[in-house]
Every structure is written in C-alpha cells, then in structure tokens.
Amino acid sequence: MDRADVATGRQPRSGPPTAAQARVVAAALDLFARHGVGGTSLGMIARSLGVTKAAVFHQYKTKDDIILAAAEAELGHLEAVVDAADAEPTRDRARAVLITGIVDLAVERRGTVSVILSDPVIVGFFVDHQQFRRLMHRLSRLLSDDTGPEAHVPTAMFFAAISGAVMHPLVADLDDETLRSQLLLLTRRLFAAPG
Amino acid sequence: MDRADVATGRQPRSGPPTAAQARVVAAALDLFARHGVGGTSLGMIARSLGVTKAAVFHQYKTKDDIILAAAEAELGHLEAVVDAADAEPTRDRARAVLITGIVDLAVERRGTVSVILSDPVIVGFFVDHQQFRRLMHRLSRLLSDDTGPEAHVPTAMFFAAISGAVMHPLVADLDDETLRSQLLLLTRRLFAAPG
DNA sequence: GTCTATAGTGCGATAGAC
DNA sequence: GTCTATCGCACTATAGAC
C-alpha cells in the first residue's frame, strides 16, 4: 500500500488483520500515545512485544504502514459510533447516541484515542484520507443543522474538547465516572441551542 | 538545567533568551507543530535556520533544553493572558478577557500552540512543571466557581476545545475571522450557566 | 556565534536461515 | 512467524578552529 492509495482512499489491504498484526497495532498505539508517532521506533514496538524488529517488519513492510493501520484502527471505533447514531430514527436521538458514544470511547481509551488523533504525523495522513473525511462530514451533518462552512466549527470543537480533555493533566486524578458525567453535562450544554 | 530543576520549577536559566536562542526556539516550535517533538531533529532545526547542528548546540546544550525553552515560550503567551484576566475587577470581566484572549491566541497561532501543548513529550515535561501547574490552577479558578476536583473538567475541556479545534482538518479552509467568532460564540455557551 | 570533523548510538529496512 | 546479522544513514552530542 503506497501513499497514492492512502490519498485516494483505495484499500488494497488484504482483508482483516491477523492476530500478529493486531498485536503490533495495539503495541504501536500505546507507544504512540506515550511518546508520539515520531518518537516511537520500530525497536520500541518490537521490544514491548518481546520480539525483534525483523518480526515486526514481517507484519508491516514499512513504519508508515504501521502508522496507517493504527490510525485506521482508531478510526474504526469512531465509525462504529457514527454508524449507531445514523441508525437512530430522529436527529435528537442520533445526537444523543453520538455524544454519549464518543464520550464513552474517549474515557474508556483515555489518553490513547486523543493523542493519536491529534498527532501531527497522523493528522498529515488523514488530510487526504477519504475514509476520514467522509466520517468527519457525517459527524458534522449529525451535529449541526447549518450547511455553510462554519458548520464544521462546532464539530471540530466538540471533537477536540472530548478527546483533548480526557488526557489533560488537570483531570489526571479524576476517576472515569466523574469525568464521564462532567463531559456529558458540558457537551450537552454546547449543543443545547440550535446548532 | 537538569530534570530535577524542571520538576521543582527552579529556574537556573540565565536571564532572557538571546536573539540566537529566540530564533532557535521559533524554528523549533514551527517544526514541532508540523512533525511532532519526537519527529523533529536538531538537524532539521539547524537546516531551517541555515546553520549547522553545532551552532544550535551552542545555544542549548541538549534537545531537552530546546523542548523546554519552546514549551515555556508558549506558556509565556498563555500566562500573559491569565495575568490580564486576573487584573480585571470583576469575575465576569475576568472571564471575558480570558476567553477572548485565549481564542485570539489560538487563532493567531493556529496550529502551533495547539499541537505543542498536546504533544506527549511536552505534556510529560509539564506534568511536574510547577509554573504550568500554577497557571492551570489559576485558569480553573477563573473559569469555575466549584472547588471540588470536578471543577477542573470545564477548564480542561475549554482548553482542549479551543486549542484542538483551530488545528482540526475540518476547519482548515475557514478564514481566521469566521473561526474566531464561531469559537467565541460556542465557548460563551459552554460557560453561560453557572460553572 | 558559527564552522568542520568526528564519536558513538540507534534508526528503518533487507537477506536468508529455521 | 520469528530469528541473527547486516547495511547505510541520521541521530544527539562533543572538541577545537576561526
């Protein structure tokens, strides 16, 4: 899979990831969150799995492939929430499902989703990534009634607020339940008035 | 300056940065924002300044020193805004100054403040950084009337929302003015009810 | 304040055995 | 699917001349 495929959204991936591939991606996500994508080496991933670099390279040909697989794995979680929201009969219920779903996701994977989706390297991958763009526009359509370009601001803000807040040092001492309920309360306030 | 000094907030720095140091920090911030801290090498910083790596090392002994100087430079901008807010006579006016100040800062330095303050490496520096912790608690006190641990959630969310939203791909095409007014509108909604 | 030159380490990636 | 071994390169950092 080369860069052109990424940009066009073509998916030459060979079906679902193998067990070994899933382990590589899981280890990579954890390290990306702690050291950033650029600060994570294949040696670190290999060491955390108890194998050698060559074994990691056997699963993914290049480091970019690992980054992409990790980013798309996180995107998959998000997509599942948006799918569930889209299946709701009314817009209000869709929004409720979307908001609680994303808050749950962020709290559950506190410090992982967040950092990964805001890492400059991954953002760079996503800028021309069709699956990502489609997902973000679906999110915008669910959250805002506007159609102009400024309709995306609430979505960007909502997304950044949730994923950024859960990993903020200020709330590091807070338990998951308190964090979750506070986030829900504040988010609903954001979208209380007609968006 | 060693790690212990960072943790205790002691400042053995030799006064204000020289012109050459300021140029290094500015170049570093730009590159950190584009490639992440871990993805930025001293060679990249040197090349972007048109000098050699040794010249960069002459200004700062280690890469960590550069990271810290860059992080504290960004922190300085934030501190100036909080200082201005604290000087206001009433809490409502203080909040207004704080919110517009931070929104202005984020839009002005779109894509720089944001990435820098959320980079895992810099967050790691800040966790035990006294100046950062004091600043964040001042921010919390201004934004929330609560005193419990959950009082920090709105602050974390506000901070993450602003700094994260300005660099989100969804709003990449938006002009600064539209982005600024939208952010202000939405932020005021967040803090409309008694916090 | 900048340079050249260099040391030592770790990087991404490959080849080929088991 | 994992290993050992290796390549060429870039990295952080230092020493000493200008």
Give a topology summary.
The structure is a homodimer of 195-residue chains.
Chain A: H1 3-8, H2 19-35, H3 42-49, H4 53-59, H5 63-86, H6 91-108, H7 113-118, H8 120-127, H9 130-143, H10 152-165, H11 176-190
Helix pairs in contact in A: 2-3, 2-5, 3-4, 5-6, 5-9, 6-11, 9-10
The structure holds a DNA duplex (18 and 18 nucleotides).
Task: Describe the protein.
- The structure is a homodimer of 195-residue chains.
- By secondary structure, chain A is mostly helical.
- Helix content of chain A is 70%, strand content 0%.
- Chain A contains eleven helices and no strands.
- Chain A has helices at 3-8, 19-35, 42-49, 53-59, 63-86, 91-108, 113-118, 120-127, 130-143, 152-165, 176-190.
- The first copy, chain A, is globular, with a radius of gyration of 18 Å.
- Chains A and B meet through helix 2, helix 7, helix 8, helix 9 and helix 10 of A and helix 2, helix 7, helix 8, helix 9 and helix 10 of B.
- The structure holds a DNA duplex (18 and 18 nucleotides).
